[in-house]
Design goal:
Blueprint: H1 12-48, H2 56-88
Length: 89
């Protein structure tokens, strides 16, 4: 990744800032993904545990919200990655 950059046009500080920005974007996506997994598993647990059978509406809400959150995270990740590439290359 760093090899693609023209060394004369960008300083070492800028290269490191670019790498930190890329890592921050990945961390943000992983936070979205982690929340997706928690909501999805919580929704399935509500369906499987007999004591929580009266909360099926909440289970459907958790599962649908999980997929919406995953889509938002993916769209945001690719949008920010595209903006990073457009700004520095």
């Amino acid at each position: 990744m760093i090899k693609n950059l023209n060394q004369s046009s960008i300083s070492r500080t800028d290269i490191l800032a670019l790498e930190r920005t890329k890592l921050a974007n990945e961390r943000t996506f992983l936070a979205y993904f982690r929340t997706f997994v928690v909501l999805l598993s919580s929704g399935f647990v509500i369906f499987k545990v007999d004591v929580l059978s009266n909360l099926t509406t909440l289970g459907y809400f958790f599962i649908s919200t999980a997929f919406v959150l995953l889509i938002i995270g993916l769209v945001r990740f690719f949008y920010v990655r595209k903006q990073i590439r457009k700004s520095f290359y």
